[in-house]
Each structure stands twice: as structure tokens, then as C-alpha cells.
């Protein structure tokens, strides 16, 4: 059931932006990729999209930023739509309690990552999507363009090159899983796809719209079905339990929505059947989640009462 409501989200967004503006302490932009370190931590944008494509926004909501790990939600959706439950033989769906780029747990779990949203799991999903499509990052970009209606979305070659130059840890994850037979493509090919995927630049408006497939229980913007209702529910559940790494418990406690963060400072969130959100502010906490982003989502669910709980 798609609920539409005559209420506008604009006043609540403006109130949140004012509150965030007055709040000191924004965290620090990610510095492990030089191309991300240059972001202004004072930037803040937030958008809400409704299932019919109506978008509300405040602040820097139209400014493109590096989507990074937010893209992991969409590659998961695209791969799950193609191969269904067979995917779960190659990646688990339990929270890890470890940082996004952790190598621990892989060895005693025989090269099967704990979930699709830590880097190891996302590499497996990208590998499988690449095998099925021959161009996983191209497939992802086409999907994001179609769902957001923004044909200008593209890869940021500078960010992708910067990640490649600082990619030893992701390379280690890829080789480690390949040693267990859990990667099909040559690791350098996989890394190239993965870094291009992470480098996609999009705004809060674009990403909130792209996420509406999950608020519509699997139906794409053009009315066709990507995911079964059950698969859409499954992805929302994995976002809730694994979407903010080792802070997923705190995120569920404070925000109470399925969400997925990226080190570019963006976070997407879903109110199933009702709306999606995307918030962006590049300053991160020590677990790699946007400080102002989590605070803004916390205020949104408190002020509106919209939460899965
Ligand atoms: N590209 C980043 C990496 O793999 C993405 C991490 C993230 O957003 N958490 O290191």
C-alpha cells in the first residue's frame, strides 16, 4: 500500500536545518582518500522524496557529493533482483560490529563476508553483478540515472583514481576472498568496478529519489517491478541492522529507520510505504557516519513520528 499524504515535509526540513546550523561540532571529512578530505564540513543538505516522485529539500540538497558506500544498497538490489537467494551462499546478512573495511571475521568464515554493506560483502556483490552484466558500474549508473531522472549523474574519475591509489586494503579483501573461491573476476577488474561504483557523484535529491524503489516495496519509478515485496523488505532489514557499520545499534536507537551511510558524508533512509530521505554533511564521527546527518535524521523521526518502530 502506498500512502500519500497531503502534508508537506518542507517546514520540518527547514526547522531541522536551522537546528543543525546552530549546533557546533560537525566531525571531520574522511581523509583516507585525498579527494574527499577537501570537503567543507559546514555543508549540509537534506531531501525527502515521496513514492510519487515529489521531492522536498533544504540547504545543499541539490549539490552533488561522493555517494561512496550508499551505492552498496543499489548494487545489492540489482544483484538480488537477478540471482535471488543464491546470493546468500556467497555473503551473509548478520551485522558485523566491525568497521566498514575490516578484515577480521573473513578467515574463520571461509571468505564469506558477514553482510553486503561492509566492504568485503560489497566486493562480493559487485563481483557477482559484474559477472552477470559484464559492466556492474555501468548497470548501477544507468539505474541511478533512471530512478533519479538525472541523466547527468556520472563517475568522478578523480575520486576513483584516488581510491585506486590508496586501495591496498580493499585489494587485500578482494584477494583474500578470491583465495577462498568467493570472487569470480580478476581482482584488479573487480576493484576497478568497485572504485568506479563508489565514486558516483549525486545530490540528496538524486539519492532520495533513487531510494524510493525501497519505499514502493520494490517498484521502480517507471512502474515496473525490480524486487519482490519480500526482497525489498529484506534489503530494508539489512540496512537497519548493517547500514551504518559498527554504529547500527545506535542508529536504530536514535533514528529508527533502515539507513545506509557513506564516507562522503551522505546517508539514505527509508520509511517503507511513506517516503525516503537523503542527508549530506561531510564531517564524520569515528565510525565513519556523518555527524550532522545522523543528528538531522534523529530530529526528523522525532518531529514527525515516522519510524519503523
Ligand atoms: N570507497 C570506500 C572504500 O571502500 C567506501 C567506504 C564507505 O563509504 N564506507 O573504502
UniProtKB/TrEMBL annotation:
<keyword id="KW-0007">Acetylation</keyword>
<dbReference type="GO" id="GO:0004359">
    <property type="term" value="F:glutaminase activity"/>
</dbReference>
<feature type="binding site">
    <location>
        <position position="194"/>
    </location>
    <ligand>
        <name>substrate</name>
    </ligand>
</feature>
<feature type="binding site">
    <location>
        <position position="245"/>
    </location>
    <ligand>
        <name>substrate</name>
    </ligand>
</feature>
<keyword id="KW-0378">Hydrolase</keyword>
<dbReference type="InterPro" id="IPR012338">
    <property type="entry name" value="Beta-lactam/transpept-like"/>
</dbReference>
<comment type="subunit">
    <text>Homotetramer.</text>
</comment>
<feature type="binding site">
    <location>
        <position position="119"/>
    </location>
    <ligand>
        <name>substrate</name>
    </ligand>
</feature>
<dbReference type="InterPro" id="IPR015868">
    <property type="entry name" value="Glutaminase"/>
</dbReference>
<dbReference type="GO" id="GO:0006543">
    <property type="term" value="P:L-glutamine catabolic process"/>
</dbReference>
<feature type="binding site">
    <location>
        <position position="69"/>
    </location>
    <ligand>
        <name>substrate</name>
    </ligand>
</feature>
<feature type="binding site">
    <location>
        <position position="263"/>
    </location>
    <ligand>
        <name>substrate</name>
    </ligand>
</feature>
<protein>
    <recommendedName>
        <fullName>Glutaminase</fullName>
        <ecNumber>3.5.1.2</ecNumber>
    </recommendedName>
</protein>
<dbReference type="Pfam" id="PF04960">
    <property type="entry name" value="Glutaminase"/>
</dbReference>
<feature type="binding site">
    <location>
        <position position="163"/>
    </location>
    <ligand>
        <name>substrate</name>
    </ligand>
</feature>
<feature type="binding site">
    <location>
        <position position="170"/>
    </location>
    <ligand>
        <name>substrate</name>
    </ligand>
</feature>
<comment type="similarity">
    <text>Belongs to the glutaminase family.</text>
</comment>
<dbReference type="GO" id="GO:0006537">
    <property type="term" value="P:glutamate biosynthetic process"/>
</dbReference>
Amino acid at each position: 500500500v502506498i500512502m500519500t499524504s497531503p502534508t508537506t515535509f518542507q517546514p520540518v526540513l527547514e526547522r531541522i536545518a536551522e537546528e543543525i546550523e546552530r549546533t557546533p561540532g560537525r566531525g571531520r571529512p574522511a581523509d583516507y582518500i585525498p579527494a574527499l578530505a577537501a570537503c567543507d564540513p559546514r555543508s549540509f543538505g537534506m531531501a525527502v522524496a515521496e513514492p510519487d516522485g515529489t521531492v522536498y529539500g533544504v540547504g545543499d540538497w541539490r549539490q552533488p557529493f561522493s555517494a561512496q558506500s550508499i551505492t552498496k544498497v543499489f548494487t545489492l538490489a540489482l544483484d538480488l533482483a537477478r540471482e535471488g537467494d543464491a546470493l546468500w551462499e556467497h555473503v551473509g546478512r548478520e551485522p558485523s560490529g566491525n568497521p566498514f573495511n575490516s578484515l577480521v571475521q573473513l578467515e574463520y568464515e571461509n571468505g564469506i563476508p558477514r553482510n553486503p554493506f561492509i566492504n568485503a560483502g560489497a566486493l562480493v556483490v559487485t563481483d557477482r553483478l559484474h559477472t552477470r552484466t559484464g559492466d556492474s558500474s555501468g548497470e548501477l549508473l544507468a539505474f541511478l540515472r533512471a530512478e533519479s531522472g538525472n541523466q547527468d549523474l556520472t563517475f568522478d574519475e578523480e575520486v576513483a583514481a584516488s581510491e585506486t591509489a590508496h586501495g591496498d586494503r580493499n585489494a587485500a579483501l578482494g584477494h583474500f576472498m578470491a583465495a577462498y573461491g568467493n570472487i569470480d573476476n580478476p581482482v584488479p577488474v573487480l576493484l576497478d568496478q568497485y572504485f568506479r561504483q563508489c565514486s558516483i557523484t549525486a545530490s540528496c535529491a538524486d539519492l532520495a529519489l533513487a531510494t524510493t524503489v525501497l519505499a514502493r516495496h520494490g517498484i521502480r519509478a517507471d512502474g515496473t517491478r525490480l524486487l519482490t515485496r519480500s526482497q525489498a523488505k529484506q534489503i530494508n532489514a539489512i540496512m537497519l541492522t548493517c547500514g551504518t557499520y559498527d554504529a547500527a545499534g545506535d542508529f536504530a536507537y536514535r533514528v529508527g529507520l533502515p539507513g545506509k551511510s557513506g564516507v562522503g558524508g551522505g546517508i539514505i533512509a527509508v520509511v517503507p510505504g511513506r517516503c525516503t530521505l537523503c542527508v549530506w554533511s561531510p564531517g564524520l564521527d569515528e565510525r565513519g557516519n556523518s555527524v550532522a546527518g545522523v543528528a538531522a535524521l534523529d530530529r526528523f523521526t522525532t518531529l514527525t513520528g515516522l519510524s519503523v518502530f
